[in-house]
Amino acid sequence: MRPTTLTAMTFGERLALARRRRKLTQKALAQRLGVAPSEMHRLERGLVQDPHGSRVVALAEALGVTTDYLLRGLGELPPPA
User: Fold this and answer.
1) What's the distance, CA 7 to chain centroid?
2) Residue 81 resides in a domain
3) Among residues 65, 15, 70, 17, which one has the least CA distance to residue 42?
4) In a domain? residue 78
5) Phi then psi for 48, rounded to 5 degrees?
6) Cβ atoms of 14 and 6 closer than 8 Å
7) Has residue 18 been placed in a domain?
8) 8: which DSSP letter?
9) What is the CATH number of the domain that holds 67?
10) C-alpha angle 12/15/17, rounded to 5°?
11) CA-CA distance, 76 to 65, in Å (whole number)?
12) Do 9 and 74 meet the contact criterion of CB atoms below 8 Å apart?
């Protein structure tokens, strides 16, 4: 069963949701950040247990959300692209 609130979602689920709201593929987001697409996959699937702070900041900036949104589910979703 899928979580119904942002705070109940995982970091990876919130990341994927924000990315899809911006109509970005994992590959496109990875290119913006200068990383391999496999890193986006690993982050969204929860295979990275403790993402580096600078990576979280870069993701938040690229997606137009706050780090609080990504890390804790606080704040608002980005508007659809």
Assistant:
1) 14
2) no
3) 15
4) no
5) -105, 110
6) yes
7) yes
8) G
9) 1.10.260.40
10) 110
11) 7
12) no
Instruction: Answer yes or no: is 50 within a domain.
Output: yes
Contact 77/17 with Cβ under 8 angstroms?
yes
| The overall pTM is greater than 0.70 | yes
Q: How far is it, in rounded angstroms, from Cα 68 to Cα 73?
A: 6
Q: What is the pLDDT of residues 27-65, one digit of tens each?
A: 999 999 999 999 999 999 999 988 999 999 999 999 999
pLDDT at 2 over 70: no
Taking CA atoms, 36 is separated from 25, 26, 61, in Å, by 12, 9, 18
Measured distance CA(66)–CA(76) in Å, rounded: 8
- Which residue's entry shows tokens 């890390």? 71
27 contacts: CB under 8 Å, gap ≥ 6: 37, 40
Structural domain that includes position 15: 6-72
Find tokens 């979580």 and name the residue: 3
What total of structural domains would you count in the chain?
1
